[in-house]
Design a protein that fits this description.
Shape: globular
Number of strands: 11
Strand content: 15-25%
Radius of gyration: 19 Å
Mean pLDDT: 91
CATH topology of one domain: Rossmann fold
Helix content: 25-40%
Oligomer: single chain
Low-confidence stretches: none
Number of helices: 10
Largest sheet: 6 strands, mixed
CATH architecture of one domain: 3-Layer(aba) Sandwich
Order of helices and strands: EEEHEEEHEHHHHHEHEHEEH
Strand order of the largest sheet: 7-8-9-3-10-11
Distance between the termini: 33 Å
């Protein structure tokens, strides 16, 4: 299994008022299993995923002491090498199929395109593989869905198509960027069951990016909690019931309760000291 090593990853974006830090010294590693990255919107979770995929804009400034996937130095890799990794060895499931899928291509054509790019298959061979993959992600009528456009698919169906696209290259590492945020509760349960089955059967590593502490605690092996572009705490998922960092404790305290009736949802006051450790 390919190893991902990130040490002191820093990302800055240009703005009219000067560089804006998005990641400030993120260090993570993953050999196998499932790593959850959790935090509020704007904490830097998705930026980590896009940095690994090489999908940050050209204006982003990326630096790290170590940024390695298997034998590839992700900082020194050429654009061509990055394209060879992206999709083929590292797959990505994005947040919302309404915006992630190409609206002018059918679902099947988008999957078949991945087989053409990563496996060299064309024509009937690519279509057969795409249909097999649609069946593998529990789509009951692959032939019909193959010819449908994204706007004709439900949210759950669109997410399954995106899983199929991510799996076409048979990646070693799968990054799922808030894959359940656009799904209702019943569809989310089915989607997570499918994702769990695929990861187990194909022996892939997973990075699950989410704002949901309960989700990552139950689905992942380890969890990294992010705030302000930094990792506040990293622990075994089981240890989230008793977090150490005050930010993680504050997040956990804000979760709504099914048994306790409150006049309003809890919030917390951010402490500037949380960001003093790494600047």
């Amino acid at each position: 299994m390919a190893r991902l090593e990130i040490e002191d990853l820093r990302v800055q974006f240009a703005s009219r008022s000067g560089p804006v830090p998005a990641l400030r010294g993120v260090s993570l590693s993953l050999d196998s299993g499932r790593l959850g990255i959790v935090g509020e919107s704007g904490s830097g979770k998705s930026t980590v995923g896009r940095a690994i995929m090489g999908l940050l804009p050209s204006t982003a400034k990326v630096a790290a002491r170590r940024f390695q996937f298997a034998d590839a130095d992700l900082l020194a890799a050429s654009p061509a090498h990055r394209r060879a990794l992206r999709g083929r060895r590292i797959g990505l499931i994005m947040q919302d199929p309404r915006y992630a899928l190409n609206p002018v291509m059918t679902a099947g054509a988008q999957i078949a395109e991945c087989f053409r790019l990563h496996r060299g298959l064309v024509g009937k061979a690519a279509k057969k593989q795409a249909l097999d993959l649609l069946a593998a992600v529990r789509i009951h009528d692959p032939e019909s869905v193959y010819d449908q456009y994204p706007h004709q698919l439900s949210g759950g169906m669109g997410q399954r198509v995106m899983i199929a696209i991510a799996l076409a290259g048979e990646p070693e590492l799968l990054i799922a960027d808030e894959p359940t945020s656009a799904l209702d509760a019943s569809v989310r349960t089915s989607f997570l069951g499918l994702l769990d089955q695929i990861i187990r059967e194909r022996g892939m590593s997973l990075i699950l990016i989410s704002h949901d502490l309960h989700l990552v605690a139950n689905f992942c092996d380890r969890v990294a909690v992010m705030y302000g572009g930094q990792v506040m705490e990293e622990c075994a998922a089981a240890d989230l019931v008793a977090p150490h960092h005050p930010y993680t404790r504050a997040l956990a305290a804000c979760r709504p309760s099914l048994t306790e009736k409150l006049p309003e949802l809890r919030t917390f006051v951010r402490d500037p000291a949380w960001l003093e450790a790494k600047t």
